[in-house]
Design a protein that fits this description.
The chain is of the alpha+beta class and 241 residues long. The protein has three domains: 87 residues; 58 residues, CRO Repressor (2-Layer Sandwich); 54 residues, CRO Repressor, CATH 3.30.240. Helices cover 49% and strands 15% of the residues. It contains ten helices and eight strands. Strands 2-1-3-4 form a four-stranded antiparallel β-sheet. A four-stranded antiparallel β-sheet has the order 6-5-7-8. The longest helix has 25 residues. The two termini are 50 Å apart.
């Protein structure tokens, strides 16, 4: 059996392992709270500031977890400092267009009236292949069909087709349509959503009666059930094991 001192390996003491697990859990919850405070925008898109912030948060959280000499709060201070800086910059961005443009950049028009703006592509160092790829993702493969295409600050391409190339909608034909809202989930994996029922001005008795009419005697047998804006109830039973 190899000598652990010769290979430079030492068994992890139970107290040290518990301390590391505690630190990991603490910084996991701290980063989760920080991301929630920063807002939903950071979850869906990454501007240059958001990307830098995400990388720094990950690195700062890893340091105190790996290094036992760094205390809990000494590791939390840089993360909270970044959070304060981000909230301050967000507030300044709301108050000042100049700060917003400096931090997040500005959208750029890369196609106008079916023609590529070559100078803008060169300034952005954005290739035609990249442009065509994003156009295909928007189901607009032909540049001549584009009225305006804008490269947003998060790198996504917003495309407005020419009016002659847009699909027909009921408003173009003068056809009235009924209101379509989001379906209200009433049962999720056998659990009744009582708040959703109350919001729909319904009760459990009504729901159980509807289920019995479909041959279902226990809501726990339902995988998913929702009510659309027209009052139609959709019910899907759980698969039989």
């Amino acid at each position: 059996m190899a000598d652990s001192r010769r290979v430079g390996w030492r068994p992890v003491e139970p107290m040290a392992a518990a301390s590391m697990a505690g630190k990991t859990l603490f910084f996991y919850l701290l980063l989760l709270a920080v991301v929630r405070i920063m807002g939903k925008r950071e979850l869906g898109t990454l501007s240059p500031w958001d990307l830098v912030l995400t990388i720094m948060l990950a690195e700062l959280a890893a340091l105190p977890i790996e290094n036992p000499r760094i205390g809990l709060w000494m590791g939390a201070v840089p993360i909270l400092t970044l959070l304060a800086a981000q909230l301050l910059l967000s507030w300044l961005s709301l108050k000042s267009v100049a700060v917003r443009n400096l931090v997040a950049g500005t959208p750029s028009v890369v196609i106008k009236d079916g023609r590529i703006i070559e100078a803008e592509l060169r300034r952005l160092r954005y290739g035609i292949d990249d442009l065509m790829e994003q156009l295909r993702q928007k189901n607009v493969p032909n540049i001549q069909d584009v009225e305006v295409a804008v490269l947003e600050t998060n790198g996504q391409l917003s495309v407005i087709p020419k009016s002659q190339r847009r699909p027909l909608c009921p408003a173009d034909l003068g056809v009235p349509t009924a209101y379509e809202g989001l379906p209200i989930p009433l049962i999720n994996d056998g659990a009744i959503d009582y708040r959703a029922l109350s919001a729909a001005r319904l009760d459990v008795s009504w729901l159980k009666e509807q289920l019995r009419a479909r041959g279902i005697h226990d809501p726990r047998e339902v995988f998913y059930a929702c009510l659309d804006s027209q009052g139609n109830l959709f019910v899907q039973e759980k698969e039989k094991q």
